[in-house]
Amino acid sequence: MHDAAQEALRTVAELNTGYRSPEEVQALLGRLTGNPVDESVTVVRVLP
């Protein structure tokens, strides 16, 4: 369980640092959830 949590934290950190193309974001979300992510899924990052 600890290893899975650490991997999830690494994936979230990767999502939150720098620019990622939509394809990269979908791949990271898929890695995080363990499921394929449809290409219609988008994530909008709101900056403070």
Task: Explain what you see.
The protein is mostly helical. It has one domain (1-48). Helix content is 56%, strand content 0%. The chain is built from 2 helices and no strands. Helix 1 packs antiparallel against helix 2 (22-33). The longest helix is centred in the N-terminal third of the chain and has 15 residues, at 2-16. The protein is flat, with a radius of gyration of 11 Å. It starts with a helix and ends in a 15-residue tail after the last helix. The model has no long low-confidence stretch (mean pLDDT 91).
Biggest sheet architecture: none
Total domain modules: 1
Gyration radius, in Å: 11 Å
Shape: flat
Overall number of strands: 0
- What share of residues is helical? 55-70%
Low-confidence stretches: none
Termini gap: 33 Å
Structural class: mainly alpha
Element order: H for helix, E for strand? HH
Mean pLDDT: 91
> What proportion of the residues form beta strands (DSSP E)?
under 5%
**Count, helices:** 2
SSE arrangement:
Layout lengths: L1 H15 L5 H12 L15
Helix pairs in contact: 1-2
Short descriptors:
48 residues, mainly alpha
Short characterization:
The chain is mostly helical.
